[in-house]
Amino acid sequence: MSLDRLGRLDVATETATSGATTPALATVGLAADIGRRRILTGIDLEVVPGEVLGLIGPNGSGKSTLLRTLAGVRRPAAGHVLLAGRRQDALPARERARSVAFVAQEEAAGTDLLVGEMVALGRVPHRGAWGGLDADSTAAVRAALDEVDLGYAINQPLDQLSGGERRRALIARGLAQEAPVLLLDEPTNHLDIGHQLALLRRIRALAAGQGRTVVVALHDLDLASTFCDRLAVLHDGGLAACGRPDDVLTPALLHDAFGVLATRVTHPLTGRTHLLFSHDERESHP
Amino acid sequence: MHSLEAVPQRRDARRAPVPLVLAVLGPLAVVTAVVSIGFGAEPLPVGVVTDALQDRVLGRAGDPAYDAIVWDIRIPRTLLALVVGAGLAIAGAGMQTLVRNPLADPYLLGVSSGASVGATAVITMGVFAGAGLWALSSGALAGALAAALLVFGIALLQGGLTPLRLVLTGTVLSSAFSSVAAFMVFRSAEPQAAQAVLFWLLGSLSGATWGQLWLPAVTVGVCFAVLLGCSGWLDALAVGPDTAAALGVPVRGLRIGLFVLLAVLVGVLVAVAGGIGFVGLVLPHVARLLVGPRHRVSLPTAALAGAVFLVWVDVAARVAVRPTEIPLSVVTGLVGAPVFLFLLGRRTYRFGGES
Q: Hey, which of A19, A107, B84, B208 has its CA 20 to 30 A from A138?
């Protein structure tokens, strides 16, 4: 896997020069509650079109909550979300769903839908309550499945797919929504390393090729730094850092947020910087 | 990704083609309706039935005795069976989607036990006596709607119409209503009351008249059209509330609308036919097993299958212990359970659960 193949550097430089464009997605002073507990406060983010933003942070830092708030599934406790400059809460639900697609972490367990039918749900925002399929929608479903190399499974029960295929099917549903912004919550969960790399490479290509904006929550810091243009670190109920991976993933921040010691090493073959982690013996928590 | 994983060899899902299913069930419903008219305390050959039908349609004067049996007694009853069967099936399908639970049936929201309180009040205490023939239906409908309103209010006050809350509130209040009905029967001086209430609770279509047909027919028709109209939203809701919200479905509004629609639909059905078990629980599953879970195809399939099923159930109830009639729930339970287990055993079917 070479750097060119990832297309990461190209997009990153493009991003840096296109500062004048309206962000595809932005938050202004965003806060989110779960019950009466404040989970996130003062989140200010800007994501430009075609950018892949990685959300990282320890368990319970609010990655999923932030994504759900960005998607409009839950209401912000304060502040607001801007989609291409328009306030998300002012948009009708259908129009919002045409502007931002969201694929949650755990869903679609135990459904009897076929893969094609699940992906076709992505057309609901375009078709309204009746939600039938017209020629356009059928084409969009096919295209979305081809995009994730799952065209062969269109008539198979979603339930019988492997874990990797199911993730791809759900992402295809997000793609069929044809929204400029795609939010993915831990898409690499339960996948082996080969499939993780393949999936992230595909997400990367979606952003580079079609100019989609992607915000993706990831657990694996190394993968996140390899595949994302920028990383946003959530910690202690707020945004601890946001920027280019190499600038963000400093040993100091990693120790702060994750309680681990990190060492940067250069890959002997690719020349890329990777992180090695070790447990900090002075920390009390595991 | 192809390099990582060869395309797995799996068979496509086994489902019956939708046009074929509808093409079989549609005519079957018509044939069923005509043939079923022949069954009853006085068996009539199919020829006599079709003659009587033709005479009426063509304006000829036929045998007045047969005309009266066919036209005034049997046809309203068959039509009511078709309407109630279809209504129960779509009510069950809607309820299972609303609470995302395969065990949900149309009576989950306390509607039927509420109705039984109303009906018992009519039978034992003569409430609504002024309504004459309509007393029982009016009492049942009033009880049903009051119960639904109570479940709705309590669930909403306690945090919203979420599936678990609805199931628990509905189940708990159902028990409470049943207790109230039982208390009224117990206190009644009328020795026949217990049997009358029991018979009503188990469902019956006897005494169907043209006059009481229009209300359930219109209700079922409208509800069916509305449910079909938002089938895309229902599909999304069945996958999960978050998924639905992310797809632009107004989840809260949809749940409230669905609740109100189901309460009215089931209230009307219970009022005209009592509590017929099993149809609303099983027929939606049968439809999904046949054509898959999408509401656009499973709702019409369930409606047609429910209509055909209930007509035959009513026939069995009429002829099994001639000349008396047995309650419909007795038949639906005895016939429905083995049929459903047979269907379930043959296929992979999840409906939200682990297999």
A: A107
**CA nearest neighbour of B125 among B183, B81, B188, B174:** B188
> How high does pLDDT run on average in chain A?
84
**Confidence class for position B63, pLDDT limits 50, 70, 90:** confident
Measured between beta carbons, the chain A residues lying within 8 angstroms of B351 are 110, 112
Q: If you measure CA to CA, which chain A residue comes closest to B235?
A: A121
Cβ density class A89-124: b for 16+ within 10 Å, e for less: eebebbebbbbbbbbbbebbeebbbbbbbbbbbbbb
**What number is the ipTM of this complex?**
0.84
Query: Quick one: pLDDT at residue A15?
Result: 44
* Per-residue pLDDT at B1 exceeds 50: no
The answer to whether B343 faces chain A, any CB pair under 8 Å, is no
Inter-chain residue contact B240 with A108, CB threshold 8 Å: yes
Strand A238-243 and strand A37-47: the pairing is: unpaired
| Count of other CB atoms within 10 angstroms of residue B308 | 25
Nearest residue to A227 via CA among A17, A105, A51, A95? A51
Q: What is the DSSP string of B243-256?
A: HHHHTT--HHHHHH
Q: Could A104 and B352 be called an inter-chain contact, meaning their C-beta atoms sit closer than 8 Å?
A: no
A197: Cβ contacts below 8 Å, ≥ 6 apart: A1, A223
